[in-house]
Queue: 4 jobs
Job 1
Amino acid sequence: MPEILQYTFMQKAFIVGLLVGGLCPSIGIFLVLRRFSMVGETLAHVSLAGVLLGILWGISPLPFALLVSVLVVFVLEKLRSVFKNYAELSLAIIMSAGLGLAVVLMGITNASDTSISGLLFGSIITLSNEDILMIGLLSFISIFVIIYYYREFFLLTFDEEGARLTGIAVDRYNYLLLILTAMVIAIGLRIVGALLVSSLMVVPVATSLLLSRGFKQTLLYAVIFGILAVLVGLIASFYLGLAPGGAIVLSSVILFLILLLGKRIRP
Amino acid sequence: MKEKILHLDNVTFAYPGNTPILEDIELEIYRGDFFVILGPNGSAKTTLLKIMLGLLKPQKGTLKIYKSGIASPHMGYLPQKASFNQGFPATVREVLEMTSKKAALGNNDQYPQINAILEKVELQEKSNSLLGTLSGGQLQRVFLARALLNNPQILFLDEPVNNLDIQAQNELYKLLHNLHQEGLTIITVTHDPDSILNYASRLLYVDKKKITEVTKENWGVV
C-alpha cells in the first residue's frame, strides 16, 4: 500500500474528498447554468457562521451549519422576490451578514488559529468518525435527489417558463436545488474550507463546458474533473505540506487552464 | 356543433402595482380553430396568451380548459423569445428527451415520437447538435418541436415568425397549416398579420384593454 494510504486520516480524507469532488460539480452545473454561481459562495459563508455558532453553543457543528444554511435559503428566496431586478444584491447582503457574523463569532468562541484556519481553508486531519458518518449520509441523500429529480433540474435550468408548462412546480424545485447546495457545502466545508468549497462547484463545470458535446457529457466530465482535482490536491497537500483546500482548488484551476490552452492551440 | 376547448370568463388582468391592461375579457376557443390574435405593440397580446396558458393568473374572472377525455390537457407553447441561456450545453435530442417525461425515464417507446417530430420540423440532421450552434430559425424549430411533444391539445405561438427570413417564415406557416389540417387547435399572436391571414380561421384584435373579434373581410377596416 502506498505510504499516503497507510494513514487513517488520509483514508478518511480520500473518502470525503471523492464524495465532495463528485458532488460539488453535480450541483454546480445547475447553479452555473442558471447564473447562480455566487449562491455557493454565499451559502458557504453562512455555513461558516453556522459552524461557529454550533461550537459556541456546544452543538454538533456540521448538522447545525446545515440547519442555518437551509433557513437562510428561505430568507434568500424572500429577499430575491423583494429585489427582483437585482438578483445578486440579495446574495451580497446574505454573504456580508454571514461573513460578519462569522468574524464576530471567531472572536467570541476563542477558537484556536488552527481550527479557524481549518474552517476557512479546509483540513484533513480533523475529520472525526462522526463527520464521516454525517458526510456519508448527506452525500447519499444528495446523490439520490440529483438522480431522481435530474429531469426537473434540467428543465428548470433550461427554461423556467417551459418547465412550468410541463407541470413542474418551479418554486419547489428552486428551493430543493438551494437546499441541496447547502447540503453539499456542509459536506465540503470540512475538507475544502468555507472560502474555497464553492470554487469546486464552479471551476470543474467551467472546465467541462470547454469540451461540451451535450448536457449529460458536460455533467459527467465536470464530475470527473472535480474528482481529479481532489485527488491531485490531496496528494500534493500530503507530500508538499500544502493546505488541502488550496491545493484542491488550485489543481482544478490548473486543469481548467490546461484545457483552455489546449483548446486555443487545437480548437 | 363546435366543441368548446377554452373559455376566458370575464377576465381582468393587471401587472402588480399597475392599472389593468385587459378588462372584462370574454372569449371562447373551439377545437380546430386557427385563432390569430392581432394588435399594436404593447396591446397585451402576449399577456392574453399567457393568461390562456395559465402562466399569468387574472385578478378577476376565470380560465376554463375543457379536457374532452384527456386526463391532463397538455399545452404546447412557442414563446416569442425563448428565455433559455444560449450557452446551455444540451443537444436538440436531449432537450426533447427531457421534455418527454417517459423518454426521460428511459422509456424507449417515446423515441419514435421524438424522431417523428424532429422529422416534422426538419431537424433530424441536427438532432445531436448543441443548441448554441443552431441558427435563429433552427432554434425556433427546436422550441416548436418541444411544444409539439406529448400531443398538445392546443398549440400556442407568440410572434412565431419574428427573426425569421422569408423562406423560414413560409416554411413555418406551411408546417402550421399542416398541423391545423391534422386537427390541432392553434392560437397565435402576431403584429404583422398579412402573411398569416390565409391560414387563420378566426381573428381577434386586442387594443385599449378590450378585444374585438373581426372577420377577414373587415380586417382592413379595423
Job 2
Amino acid sequence: MSAQPPRRRLDDCDLRELASRLRAGRLWLDFGATSTRLASDVPALAEHLRQVYAQFPLLDDPGWADHHVRILRPRGLRRWLRPQAEFECDLQRPFEPFPADTALPLFEWGSNWLIGKRLANLLLLHAGVVERDGLALILPAVPGSGKSTLTAALSLRGWRLLSDEFGAFCPERRRFIAMLKPVALKNDSIDLIRAFEPQAPIGPLFPKTRKGTVAHLGADREAVDRRHEWVRPGAVVMPRWVGDSPLSLTPQPAHLVFGSLAFNAFNYQDNGERGFDAASYLATQCRGWRLEYSRLDDALAALERLWEEVREARAVKAAAESPA
Amino acid sequence: MTWPWLQALGRPELVRGWSLAQWQEATRQLRRLRLLARLAEALEAAGLNPSVPEPAARLLLAERQTSRYRRRVVSWAATRIARTLQDLGAPLVLLKGSAYLAQELPIAAGRLPSDLDILVPRDALQRAQTMLVAEGWQEPDLDEHDRRYYHDWSHEVPPMQHPMHPVELDLHHNILPPLGPVTIDMPPLLDDLHACSWPGWSVLAPVDQVLHSAAHLFFDSEPLERVRDLVDLDGLIRHFAASDPGFFTTLQQRAQALGLMEPLLLAGHFCSRWLDTPLDADFRQRLQRKDFSLGAQRALFARVLAPAALDRPRPRAQRAAAAVVLWRYHLRRMPLRLLVPHLWHKLNKARVDPTPR
C-alpha cells in the first residue's frame, strides 16, 4: 500500500491561502450529510472559518457540492460605509444583509436555512445527535431547551458529535449520518461551556446578533474524520434545562417519543408516508426518556449510566436477532 | 440549441451521457428555477433513476418529496375550500398550477406549488371572502397603501392564509389586472368552464388556460428567468393539441377575441425555439410574419427569460433588459402618478432574516 500524504486541514492552511481560495470560490466544506462550496470576499471570514472548521479537510475540487454559497460585500458606498455581507446561493439572495463582521453567523444561519429547506431525502429531526459504542443518542427538543448546550457538553466528554441541530436520518438505511456544523452557542451557554471545558475550541464572539451573543464550538478531529459513518439509532432523550431543579430521567411511552421526533422535524411533512415510517421506526426501536436537569455534570453522569443500559439491551437484542 | 438540462425535462433519456459536472450544473439551475422536481418525476417515469449519479440522486429525491408534499397540501386546501364555498351559488374556478393538478395533466408532475389560485365571479367575490374568513382564512395585516392597491388596481384580493393550511390562497375575480394593457371581460370565459377531478371545482377551457398562462408571463409578472412558465406552456400546448385537431385554430381565434394575440405569439415563439413545442403549420406561419414591435419584444424577452450562467455576476444586458420589461409592465399597468409612490413603497419592503426564531 502506498503511503497516504498527510491530509491537510483548514487549521494547517495559512490565512492568505485560505482567503485566496475563498475569493476564487474554491473552498469545499463537507458536513457529512451535505456539502457546500463557498466563495467570499469578506476579509474576516477566512480567519473565522479557520477557527470553527479547523479540523475539516482542505478539499481540492471534489467535483460536487450540494450548495454553492457566496458571501459577498455589496458594491457601492456600502462597501466602505458600515460594510455589509450578503448571502447568495445560485444567483438568489434570500436574506437581508448582515454587518460584514458577522459574516460567519450569516453563513451558518443561511446554510442551515438551505439545509432545512432542501434535503428532504433525509428525515431531518430537530435534534442534537451524538454517538457512542456505535449507537446514536438522539436529543430532540424545542428551541430554548438547552439542546445545543447539552450536545456540546457531551461532545467534549467522549461522545462523537453528529449534529447539534439536524438529526439526519435516512429512512431506507435506518441509520443516522452527521450534519457536522459548528455547535451554535448563545449568550449564557457560551460561558457555561467555557467553564465546563476551558480547552473547548470556541470561535469568536459575535455580540448583538438577533439572537444575542453567538459563538461556535468547532467539531473535534475524530468527529470530522468519521462524519461519513452511518450510525444505528440507540435511544431518544428529550432534554430540558430547568434552573435549580433536581435531575430527573423519566421513561417516555413510544407515542410521546414519536411526537417529539415527528412534530419537531424540519421535513416530516415533506416525507409523507416515508417520514411516518421513519419516525415510527425510531419511536418503536428506541427507548425514550425525558431528562430535566440544572447542572451539566449531573446530566452527563445520568446519560453515562443510562447508556450502559441501552448498550446491554441492544446487545441482547442483536444476539437474539443474529442467526447462530 | 438551448440548455441541455432544459431539454432533459421533455426528453429525460438525454441524461444518460451526462458527466458529474453536467449533473451539478443541471441540479443547480433546475433547483433555483423550481424545475428540479420535474426532472425527478420525468426520470422516475422513464425508469432512468439507475443512470443518475449518487449525489444528484439525493437532491432529486429530496426535491421530489417536497414537490409531492406541496401538491398534497394544495389539493387538501382546495377540497376544504370547495366545502366552505359550496353555498356560494357561483362557479368555483381553479387557475394555473392548481388547475393543472386537478386535471391530472402531465405537467402536474413535479410542481412545487406555494399558493392556490382560485377565481369566482366578481359579484360573488365579497361573499366568498366573507365565507372564507368565517372558516379561518385570514387576511394579511396590510398598510393603507397595500389595501388600496389590492382594492383599486388588482384582479385579486390580498393573499389569505390559514393556520392549518400551509398554502397561500389567492382569490381572483379576473385573470388579468383591471389596469393592464388588456382587460378581460370574464363572462365568456365563465360560460365555457370545464370539469376536473376535484369535486366542486371547474377549470377554464383549454385555450383559455394557455392564454392565461401566456398573458400572465408576458403582461403580468416579473419575468426574469421565468422558463418555468414556458415549460408549463409547452406542456399545456402539447397535451391539449394532442386530443383536439382544431386546437391551434381555436387558440388563435380566442386570442384575437380577447386581445391576447401578442402574448400568444411570444409564447409560441419561445416554446418552439427553446422547447421544440410542436405547433401546427398555420400557427407557425403566423409566427413568421414580420412585425416590428413583436420582433423587439422577442429580443427583449430572450434576454430576460434566459437563465443566467452561474458563479458570475448577472450579465449587464440582462439586468438592463429586465429593467426595461419591468418598467414597461408597470407603466402599462398604472399611470406614473400612481406608479412612483407604489414602487417606492415596494422598494422599502424587507427581505427575510435568516436568524432562527
Job 3
Amino acid sequence: MLPEAAELLVLAAAALLFALVFAPAAASRRNLLVQGGTGMVATAAIAVVPTFDLALLTIVGLGVMQAGIPGKRTLAVRLRAPVLAVAVLAFALVFLRVEGPAVLERFAAVGLVAGLAAAVGLFPYIHPFAADEPVAASPIVWIAFVGPVLAAVVLSRAEGLLSVDAGQALAAMLIGLGVINMAWGSIASWLTDDTAAAWRYSFLADWGLVLCGFGLTLSDGRRAALLVLFGIVVGRLPLYLVSREPRAERVTSEGPINLVVAAALAGSAPFVGFAARVLLLRGATQLFWPLALVLALGMLLWLPGSLRLGRSLGRPRGRQAFGVALAVAVNVAAGLYPLPLLAAAKL
Amino acid sequence: MIEGLAGFVAWLGASVVVLSDGRRGLALGAALSTLALAAIVFSGAGPVAGIALGVGGLTAAARRLTVGVAGWGIMPPGSTPRFILCVGGGLLALWIALGVTSGHSSALRFAVITVAGLAGARVLSSGESSVLLTSVALLALATAAASGLTEEALAIWPYVGAAAIAAGVGWLPQSAPRAA
Amino acid sequence: MPSAAVLAPVALPLVAAGVIAVFRLAGMSLGRVAAAIGAWGAVAALLAVWIPVRSSLELTLGALGYGSSFDLRIDAVTFAFGLMIATPTAVLLTLQPRTWQEMSISLVGLASALAAIEGGSVVLTALAGATAGTVAIVLLETEDPRAPRPSWATLLVGWLALSWVGVMLQVGGGTAVYSAVPVATVTAPLFGVLAVAALLASNLFPWRTWPADLWSRPSLRAAGITVAILYPLGFYLLVRAYELGDGRYPHPLFHAGLAILGVTAAFAAAARAQAAATRRKFLGEVIPFFGGFALASIAIGTALGLVAGLVLLATAAAMVACLALLPDRAGLAAMVSIAAAVGLPPGLAFGARVIGIEATFEAGDLLGLIGVAAAAAWALLMVGGARAIGLPGGRGHPATETFAGVSMAIAMLTLLAGPAIAAVQTGFANPVATEVMSTSALGGGLITVDTVSSVLPAVTLFAPLLILGVLVYAVAGTSAIRTQSRAALFKLPEGGIWQRARETVRALTVPEQYRSILNIRELEIAAVGGQPLLWLAALAALAFAVTR
C-alpha cells in the first residue's frame, strides 16, 4: 500500500472515531458505526487493491452503497458523480493501455483529473448538496473521507502510467483546477447563504490547495498536499461535525474558541494549514514564482469564510467543547512539527 | 468474426438499455451486453473470467426483469436524442477502436468504450432507479473488461468484483428522498 | 551556558500559561502571580543568558518538516528586542487584574513573540510572528469583541509575505538562516517583499492604524499587551534585514524610501496628536510617532541611526506600559507621561531623537532633509503635548486597571535615564549594530556618544539639565502650568475618507441589463446543480485545452 494512502487511511479512521465519540446527540451512533465502518472498508480497499480497475470497481460499489442510505437527494443525483468519475477514469485507463497517437495519453490525463474531481466533488463537478442531509449520505463523505485516499491512489498510479508529456499536462490541469477551486471555494464559503453549504465550499477551497500541491510535481508540493489533506480529515471534518448541532440549539457567536477555530480553518499559524502553505509557496517558487504570488493572494481569501465558519460553531459545551479542543490541539501539533507525518508517508 | 459480432451485440445491448424505460427492455439490453462482453473476455482472459462476468451480468438482468417499470418501454416518445446518442456514440467508438487506436482485440476496445460510454450517459440522463442501477451494472462490467487491454498477466479479481457489483446492485434498497 | 537555555524565554511563559489554565480548570485561581512569574521569568532568562557571555548562543535541533530546522538563537538583536517585548508585558501582567483566559492567552502571545525574535531563520520568525498575531486578535476579542482591533487580514498578509521571503531565500540561497544567507540572494524584489511584510507586521503607515486605534478601547488590558508584543516585530525584521544584506539594504532607495515613510508616519501621527480632542486620543498617537521616528532612524543605514532607532524603540516599549497604566483623569502622572512622550530634555526620547536627527545629517546627500522633517514633526508633537495637558481626559478606564503612580514612575524613569543614554547605547543598542552591520562599536563609552562629526556629551549635558528641571519643579511645582484648553494648530480634514470610499464601493451596483450575467446566486445554483451537460462541457473543455 502507498505510505501516503496508508497514513490517510489511519487519519480517516481517527476521524470516524471522532465522529462516533463527539457526534451531536441527534445522530445515531449505531448507524454511524455501520455506515462509517463500511465506508472505511471500501476506502481501505481502494488503497489496498493491486490494480486500478479494482479501485474503480470499489468506487462504483461505494457510490452505490452510499446512494442507498436514506437521504434528502434522489438516487439519480447521488449516483451521477461517482458514475461519471468511474466512467471517465475507465476511459483514461483505456487510453493508457491501447496503442495510438501521443495525444491519447493527454486525453488519459484529462480523464484522470476529471475523474478525480468528479469523485471528490470539486469544481466543475460539484456534487449537489442538501444542508440537512445526514453526513453519511452527503457529499462530505467523498470530499473529506474517501477523497483524500482516492486522490493519493489515483495520482500516484498516474505517475507510473503517464509519459513525461502527459504528466506535464496532468500537472498543469491540476494546478489550473486547483486555483479555480481555491478561488471558488473560498469566495463561496464567504458569500453563500447557507452555513452548511459554506462548510462544504471550505472543503473545496482546501482541495484547491491539494490539487496545486500535487500539480507542482516537486516533493514540497506533495508534502503540502499531504498536510492539507491532514487538515481536512483531522481538522475541518471534525469541526464540521461539531457544527452540525440540532437546529434549535444552533447559535452563532464570536468568543475566543470561535476565533481559534477560524484561525485553524484559515490556515493561520501555528496550525497545520500554515505549514502546508509554506511548503506550497516553496514548491511554487521553485517551479515558477508568479504562481507563488497567485497562490499567496489566493490564500488570503480564506479569512472571511473562516471567520463565518468559526462563528457557526456557536458555544460548544461539554463533550463537543472537548472535541473542538482536541481537533485544534492536534492541528497545532502538526503545524509546529509536521515532520513525523511526512516521514510516515515517506515524503 | 465472432469478436466483431460480439462487439456489435455489446453495442446493441447498451443501446437497448439507453432506449428502454421498462424492465423487460432493460433486462434484454443488460443480457445482450453481458453475453457479448463475456464472450470477448472469454477469448481474451480465459473461461473463468468470462463465466464470472456472464454470471454477474445475467444475474443483474434477471433481477431487473422483476423490479422496475413494467413492460418493454423501448423507444418511448421523446427518445430521439437517445437514439442519436446510440448511433453517434457507436460510430465514435468504432472510429476510436479501429481508426485511432491499435493493439490486440479491437472488439474489446470497441465494446468497452461503447458500453462504458452509453451506460455512463444513461446514468447522467435518467432519474429512474431501475435504469440507473442497470446502467451501473453495465459500467462495472465494462470497467472489468477493460483490464483485458493491458499487456500484463490478467488476474481474475476485476471480473469477480464486477460480477459481484453487477449482481448486487439490483438488490439495493431504493428509499425515497426525505422531505424537508 | 548550555544551548538549551535559549528555550527558557519562550518556554517559561508557555509553562505559566499552561499552569494557569490547568489550575483554573481544576477550580483554583492562581491570580496574577503565575502570570507575573512567567513573564518576568522570560525577562530574567534573557538577562541570564546574554549578560554573562554577551555573545550568541544558539540551539539547533532537527528539521521541522517545512524546510526549516528548529533553530533558536539569542544574540544582541534578540536580547534587545526581547527586553522591549517582555518587560512591558511583564509589568502589565503583574499589575492589571485579568481573567485567567486573558492571562493564559497573553502569556502564549508573549511566548510567540519571543519565539519570533529568537527564531534563527526567516521561516521560523514568520511562523511564530503569525502565531503572535493570531493570539493577539484572540486576546482582543476575548476582552471586548466590539472594540477596535487590528485587521486580521493585514496581519496575516504580512506574515504570509514574510514566509514567502523565507522560502525565496531557501530556494535562491539554500538557506533562510539569518546568519547564513548569501548576500547575493537578497535582491531588491525580495527585500521589497520583506519590507512590505515588516510594515504590515507593525502597521507602519502614515494613516491611523491599530497602534493608535487600540488606545481608544474601553479597557487597555489587552491593548497594552498587543502593542507590546506585536509592534516591535516589524522593526525587528528591518533590523535583521541588515544582517541578511551584510550591513545594508540592497539599494539606497530602500534606505531613503523607508526613512521617508517613517518620517511621514511620524509627522502624520504628530498632526493627529495636535488635533486630538481628548488627552487619551493624543496619547494614542505617541507610539505611532515613536515608531515613525524609529523607522526613519533605523532605515537611514548608518550605525548611529540604528542605535538611535533602537533606543527610541526601547523608550516606546516603556511608554506602552506607561500609557496602559495611566488613568485618563488629569494629574501629575498625565503631565509627566506627556513630558516623557513628547521628548522633553533631558529624557531618553529627547536624546535618542537628537541622535537620530544627527544620523540623518551624517548620512549625507539629501538624507539630511529627512532629519529636518523629523525635527518639524517633533516640534509639532511638542505643541500637541502642550495642548494635551489642558484637554479633557477621555472616556476613562476601570480604576482597577490603572496605576497612576507606576505610570508616572515609568515616565519619570525615561526622563531620568536621559543622561545615561550613552550607557544605554553602549550596553543595549551598540551590540545590535555590531551584530547586524558588522561594524566596530560606536565610540564614546558610558558618558558620551561619538558620532562621525561630533560628540554628544550625554552625561555632562543632560545631567545638569536634569538637576535644573528638578530644581524648577521643587521651587514652582505645577502652579506655572496652565491647563486651559487650547485650539489645535491646524485641523485635519474631516475624518472618514476611507469610510466614505468604502461606502461608495459598497453602493456600486451592476447595471440592470447586466445583472443576469453577473448574478452570483444564479451562478452558484448552476454550478452545484449537478447538470450533466455542464459536466460534459467541462470535460470537453479540458480535452480541448490539452490539445493546445
Job 4
Amino acid sequence: MTLVIATLLLFFAGPFVLWPLIRTPDEGGDEAGR
Amino acid sequence: MSVALLDHPVYIVTLAFLGSGALLAGLVLAAFSALLSFWAGYAENGVMIQVGRRAFYATAAMILAAGVLLETALLTHDFSLAYVVEHSDLSTPIALVAAAFYGGQEGSLLYWALILGILGSASLLASARIGLRLAAYAAGIMAAILTFFLVVLVLVASPFDVLQITPPDGLGLNPVLRDGGMLIHPPVVLAGFASFAIPFSFAAAALLAGRSDAAWIAHTRRFALVAWGLQSAGLVLGMWWAYHVLGWGGYWGWDPVENVAFMPWLATTAYLHSSQVQERRGRLRGWNFGLVMLAFLLVVFGTFIVRSGIVPSVHTFAVSAIGPWFFGFLGVCLLFSVGLLAFRAGDLKSHAEPAPAVSREGAFTLQNLLLIGVIVVVFWGTMLPLVSGMLGQQRVVGPTYYERAAGPLFVALLALMAAGPLVPWRHAGAPLWRSLRWPAGAFAFLLAALLVAGVRSLPALLGLSLALAVAATVVYEYARAVGRWRLAGGGWSRALTLVVRRRRHYGAYLAHLGLAVLVLGLAASHFWQQEKDVTLLPGEQVSVAGYTLTYAGVQNRELADHSEFVAAMSLGGQTLEPARATYAGLGGQSLTHVAISSSPIADVYVVLAGTNGDGSASFRIFVNPLVSWIWAGGAIIILGVLLGNAGERRVAVAPVAARVRSPVGAS
Amino acid sequence: MIRWGIAMAVVAACVGYLVYSASGGSSEYYLTVSELRAHSPTTGDVRVAGVVQDDIQRSDGGLHLRFTEKDGTASMLVDYTGTVPDIFRPGITVVADGRLGADGVFHARAVLAKCPSRFSTTPYTS
C-alpha cells in the first residue's frame, strides 16, 4: 500500500518537476534558468 | 521495526500508509534531485538544473506532507501508530501532544528533514545571484543529505510504523518533559542543527565548482547567520529549560548533549567573523571553508553521539539501530569534506598580502585560533570516556575540567571582543590607543570595584571586568554613530537611513552587547551562587544571602493528571510555591516544581525536597545572582541577529583588494 | 606566514597544556559497581553506575538518602545528602559521584540520574 501511495504521489509530482522540460520540448540545450 | 500485517485488505488507505508513502516518494525524489543536480551542474544544462531543483522542492513538499500527517495522527490520538502510542496518551495536554512530533527518535528525524527541506528550498530560491552551476551543486549536496535522512526514515526508523492491535490509550509523556520548555527548546535546537547543512552545502558546492565570489560569500553568510541565530536561541532556551525544570539550581552541566550543540555554534561564530576578511581582502579562504564544513561535521558527529549511546550521559541514549547509520554518514561526510579541501587546496591560497598583526584581520585570525582551541577542549572532554574506555578503565571529566581548560581561552576571547571592533583594518596607529581608553576604562573600573568588594577569584575578576569592557565598546560605537548623525543634521528619517544602511554593523554590535550581558549573568550566577539545605516547621524562617523566607505550611492539591504537595513560602510580599507533583498514571512517579522569585539582581530558587511526619518540610534553597541577565542577553543577541540580517539584497561590502579569481564560463 | 605559523603553534601549545593539566586534575574513573568492588581505587572521587534497588530510605525531609546500587551481582550502599533528580526511584540507572568509605558505604556528593529517554527506539509491546 505504501508503494501505491508513493507511486501516486510521484505521478502527481511529475508534471511540476518536469515542467521545464515540458515547457521547452525542442530546446534541450542551455536555457538561462531562473 | 516491523510493519504489522493488518487483518483487513491492504487497499484500505490509512493515515500511516499515506505518511509512509509520502516519505518513500520523497526518498525517490531526493535521490533523483541529487543525481540530476550534480550531472546537470557539471554539464551546465540549464533546463536539467531547473528540473533537479524542482525535484528538491517536491521532496520538501513530500516531507511536509508526512509531517502534517504525523501531527494529525498525534492530535487525533490515532493509536494505531506505534509512535503516537509511545509518546502521548489521552490525558496529556494538547500542546504537549503536538510537541510529541519532535519528541521521539523518528519524529525528530522527520522534523530535521523538514527543516532542511524548507530552509534548503529557501536558500535555492534566494540563489539567483550566485550562478547556476554553484546553485546546482549545492542543491545536489542538500538533496544527498536529505536522501540519507529519508533512507533512515523509510528503512530504519519510520514514524508511521503500525501496531498489530490498536491499544485504547497511549503510554504518555514522561512528567519531566511535561513543561512549556518542551514546546520551545527541542524544535529550535533541532532546527539549528539542521540549518548548518545549508552553508555547508554552498561551501562544498563552491569548492566543487572551483569558484567563490562576493555574491556567494553574502549568500553563505546569510544562511550561516540563520543557523547561528537558531542555535544561539536553542542553547539559551535549553539552559532556561534546565534551570526552571530540573531543580538542581544550574543551567549547564557540560553533558555530551550540551557539548555537541555548543561546538557547531563555536565554529560558526568563528566563521561569521573571519568571512569578513574574505569579503574585504580575499584572505582566510581556507579557514572559512574549513570552519563552515567543520560546523556541519560536528553536527553529524553530535547527532551520532546523541543517538548511539556510546558516551555516558545524563541524557539516556538507547543503543539504537540508527547509530551505525549515522556513523557511516559521518564517515562519508568527513571523507567528502577533507577530499574536497585537499583537492582545492591550491586555489584556497590567497594572493593578497597578509595584514599587520595588530589589525582587524589579525584579530579575526587570533579569534579563529582561540575558538578552535575551545572546540578542541570541549571535544576532548566529550570523547574522553570513549577513548579511555577503549584503552583501559573508563574516565570522565566534570565541569571543573571545562572551566579550567576553556576558561583562559574564553577570557582571551572576551578581551578580543572588547578591543576588536575598535581595531582598524589597516595599520593600527594612535587613534586605536585613544579609542581603547573606553573598554580599558570600563575594565579597570569594574576590576577595582570587585577588588574593593573583596572578590579574589581571578576568573571572576577577569570575566566580569572584560564583559563590561565589551559592553563599553559597543556603547562607544553607538555613541560615535549618534555623534555622526547629529553632525549630519539629525532627524528621524536620517536616523532610520543610517541604521538601515549599516544594519549589519549595528546588528552585530547589538549581538556583542547581548553576549556581554549574558556573560555577566553567567559569571555572577556561577561564582556567587549560594546554597542552603534546611528543614522547617510551619511558621519558621530561614535566611539565605540576605533573603528571608518564612514557611507557611503544606497544602494538597488535586489537578487533572496529577496531585501536588505545595509548601508555600513567603518572601517579602511574595508567595513562592515549591511543590512535589505525583502522577498517578505513571506508577506514582513524583516530580519537583521549582519555585523561583526572579529579579534583575538575583533569583531566589526553592526546591521542596520532601515533607516529614511532624509537619515539617525540607528545602534546598539557592540564591543565584544575575541569572535573568542570561535570558535578557540571549534575547538581545537574537534582536541583533534579526536586525543585522533583515532583508539584505545588495552585497554589503565592496572588496578592498584583489577579488577572488573569476571562473571560466561563469553564468 | 611564518608569523601566523608561530601564533598557531603558541595557541596550540597553550591549548594542549590547558587540556592536559585540567584533565589530569579533574577526571574521575567511571565504574560499574562490580568494577568498584573489584578494584576499589582509593585516591580521588569516582563515579559509579548502577541500578537503584527497592530499599530507599529517606530521612530529614528527603534531604538525606540511603539506597543500594546494584549491577549484576555486586551491590553497594550509598549515603547521600541533598536533592535527587525527579526520576529517582527503584529500577533506574544512577551515577553516584563520591568515594567509598572505610565502612564500606559509598559517600556520594552528587547523584546523577539518566533523563527520560526521548530517543529510545524500544518498541511498544502490549
